[in-house]
Specification:
- This protein has helices spanning 3-17, 24-30, 32-48, 54-66, 186-231; strands at 69-70, 75-76, 81-82, 89-90, 95-96, 101-102, 107-109, 121-122, 127-128, 133-135, 139-140, 145-146, 151-152, 160-163, 168-174, 179-182.
- By secondary structure, it is of the alpha/beta class.
- The protein folds into 2 domains: 3-182, UDP N-Acetylglucosamine Acyltransferase, domain 1; 184-232.
- A 7-stranded mixed beta sheet has the order 3-6-9-12-14-15-16. The chain has a 5-stranded parallel beta sheet with strand order 1-4-7-10-13. A 4-stranded parallel beta sheet has the order 2-5-8-11, with no helix packed on it.
- A hairpin with a 4-residue loop joins strand 15 and strand 16 (179-182).
- Helix 3 packs antiparallel against helix 4 (54-66).
- The longest helix has 46 residues, at 186-231.
- The chain starts with a helix and ends with a helix.
């Protein structure tokens, strides 16, 4: 597939995944994710040919204009879409499959200082929510959804939904029929148990306070009774 066909696919992907997109021209003129991807195509091609400095310069300018930082060495598949995009960072050895969507503030970062594979691999149709961080040479399977603000540091199997810090699987879904199988969440269940226990303790304290108030009232009445009788 030639470059122009891939660019047309990127435009259609943006219009399909962003309901705010009204026309192809709007995407071409005003979508920073689309602009960053265009710059990365050129920079990556030069990077693969061993051209020094220029690929980094291209992406440095792209970051200045779009707020999106993509290393020229990152490998990105077809129909890649970055929504809004400000603060997105994609490291040198990151690999991104087809039909992947990233939202603002996403980081595909590394943990090693060695010249090895140190950034994540995202398989096809992965969606990463706003502010999520995927760190290290981990593999994120097909159709995975990563919730906003999550931090993922381990491999994730296909069709999973991941949330939390650190990220943990809360459900598996089937895109073919929309079925979702939710998994038990021990941490959430524990919080619910604590919340219920707190409500019980509040009710007990309120009952004790009411009982003490009644005892105090009876004691007060008992002290006044003798004085009243003596006056009579």
């Amino acid at each position: 597939m030639n470059i122009l066909a891939e660019i047309r696919e990127d435009i259609r992907a943006a219009m399909a995944r962003d309901p705010a997109a009204r026309s192809a021209l709007e995407v071409v003129l005003f979508y920073p994710g689309f602009h960053a991807r265009l710059a990365h195509r050129l920079a990556h091609a030069l990077h693969r040919r061993g051209v020094p400095l220029i690929p980094r310069g291209i992406m440095h300018l792209a970051r200045f204009f779009t707020g999106i930082e993509i290393h020229p060495g990152a490998r990105i598949g077809r129909r890649f879409f970055i929504d809004h995009g400000m603060g997105v960072v994609i490291g040198e050895t990151a690999e991104i499959g087809d039909d992947v969507t990233l939202y603002q503030g996403v980081t595909l970062g590394g943990t090693s200082t060695r010249r090895v594979k140190r950034h994540p691999t995202l398989r096809d149709r992965v969606t990463v929510g706003a502010g999520a961080k995927v760190i290290g040479a981990v593999e994120i399977g097909e159709n995975v959804r990563i919730g906003a603000g999550s931090v993922v540091v381990t491999n994730v199997p296909p069709n999973a939904t991941v949330v939390g810090v650190p990220g943990h699987i809360v459900a598996f879904h089937d895109d073919s029929n929309g079925a979702i199988q939710r998994l038990p969440d021990p941490e959430w269940e524990r919080l619910n148990d604590l919340d219920r226990r707190l409500d019980e303790l509040r009710a007990q304290i309120a009952h004790l306070e009411e009982h003490l108030a009644q005892l105090h009232g009876r004691h007060h009445d008992g002290q006044e009774a003798p004085g009243t009788a003596a006056e009579r």
